[in-house]
Amino acid sequence: MKYFIGKNQDNHAPISNGNVLAWIQQYDIGCLPVDKISQFFFPNFDLSSAMFDTPGSYVLAKDHNEKIWYDPYGMVKEKLGQIGEIISLNNTQYINGYGVYEVVSHKGNTVVRTKTWAPPSQNSLIRSIEVKTLRNNASKATIFPVVHLKNVVQRIGNIFISRISENQWLATTVSPTAAGITGEVPIAVTTGPVTIFEHSLIPVPLVFTIPDQTIPHQNYSQPVYQIFAAGTTKDAAIQQLNETLRTIRQSERQTLQAWEAWYRETIDIGELPPPLDYYWKLSNTVAKMSMQKDGTPIIIGFRPYQGNVWIRDSLWIASTLALSGHYEDAIHALYATLSYLIERPDGNYYFAYNVVTRLPNEHAFENDTTGLILYGIWQVWSLVKDRTIIQDLWPIIHQSTNWILTNRDASGLIFPDAGIWETFGPHLGEDFEHMTWTSAISSYGLLKAAEMAEAIGENEKAIQFRQGAFELLQAIGRNNVHNGIVCRSKETKLLDASVSLFFSEFPLFPKEWRAPTLRAIEERLQDPFIGGIWRHESLTTEEGDLKPWTGPTFWFGEALLANQEVDKAWSYFGHNYNNSAFCGLLPELLYSKGRARGIGMPSYSQSGVIRSLLLYNNLFHRSDLS
Predict the structure, then answer these.
(1) Which of 111, 147, 536, 601 is least surrounded by CB atoms within 10 angstroms?
(2) CATH number given to 13-260
(3) Does the N-terminal peptide bond of residue 216 adopt cis geometry, omega within 30 degrees of 0?
(4) pLDDT at residue 565 greater than cutoff 90
(5) How far apart are CA 186 and CA 315, in angstroms?
(6) Per-residue pLDDT tens for 89-139?
(7) What DSSP state is assigned to residue 467?
(8) The GH15-like domain covers which part of the protein (predicted)?
(9) The whole model's pTM is what?
(10) Into which CATH architecture does domain 265-620 fall?
(11) Quick one: which of 85, 90, 29 has its CA closest to 54?
């Protein structure tokens, strides 16, 4: 499980600086171990902005003394030693928890270390490649950086240029400079030039042949740099490439320093033990990486949802950034997210949009958007303490509160919908229900809207909002709570893990409901085989099973903290940490076959690290986390 990234080929470790985004993959089709840049995105983090051909970019190396090919795909057929041995992944990490991703792998005695980063404020990506021996003996090696391009429209010396669209250009080369060959990779690395027609619109592999590198005793060879630079024009891409090359030797250090400077803004929660310290730093880093240049936080890690802006996810990330002390980023994310809003015919807002077209892109019907908007605006404002935020966003606040107050039926609850889960409703053969989540987040949103209304002198509105919030909470108590257990909806006594948030993140429910609900969730939503908490009873994923999700497991642990059950809470937090990848990324959920899906949800997964540690610190004022 430690290397879940890539066992489902849509899972990736992200590297981003806001301008560009790269996906790093550790397993390819058939669970083949491979260290590769799976994809590179510019200018939007959307699948339509993908700049590589499907095989991506990877490294081959020929160790001359060992007579071995470091060849993840087994393409080279030369009769050298250990041809059949697969590559072993030694370690993956974000260096110091920041924005430089390192992979160490080996085949036989040949060790390859790559580091990948996106330099601050540039439209470029750099990968450094170093080779050593496992037994620390001296040797020589030839390194072959490979990239599969969608096309090559021009070459200028050893710079190759690819055009994806009218405003998408990619320039790539290596440093120290080396000859590039287009054509079949196995032939290019063994017999030399096999150039095919480069001025074409067909995908083409490009191989750079780096002169023999000396592998010193006990140390790595000097780094070889592979550079990718993007631009809206050919000249812009070439200029960006040359700018990146000028500072290539200092770039890794400068990138780490930029991340360190950003991290110093993070709230101080005291000294953490090494594992938690790493998870804390990495989770803050990934939250920042999910933000595009315009501030929009989006899904960043796996293919089905790439380029989608979910209002819920984006607001969760924006509020997490605010809670962790990054106020400027939080404001940027809040305004960017709300700029996507388009009203539905009934006056609510669509909850999902494509980042390029900015058009609605949802596949379910959820009425929680207005409550979440009110919470998100309040959370950022309450920490930043700037009334301009309320004044700027008052039309959205007014529209959201008005929708909640006028869209309740005779039960007193918000009209039926899918709740917090898109995998629920008529499209899966289920009727919508009066979901507890929807009415509860609407109630909490109204309470926070009342605070904001008072801050700008709208006292009558504040009274109206609080009355509406009280009525919704009463309706939940009448219809959706049985023997103190908060159920999924008015229509059923089945459970939904999202209700646990209203004992912690959104402290709305009376404490009398807490213990009975927690006991029921633990009994009925905890996975009996691998631990963790399911989203809700009767949920079926696209894989056809019921498996625990990282987000709901964090939420349940936080509710246990609020109930003073500290040890039990940490057992659930530990479940999540134990199912992380070596690099510290957490999956969105676990499937029954032991596979994990996605780190594309920093709102639910990595933000869970940040929010649970903050809650623990706030409730117990201790720094002795262990």
Answers:
(1) 111
(2) 2.70.98.10
(3) no
(4) yes
(5) 48
(6) 999 999 999 999 999 999 988 999 999 999 999 999 999 999 999 999 988
(7) H
(8) 350-499
(9) 0.94
(10) Alpha/alpha barrel (1.50)
(11) 29
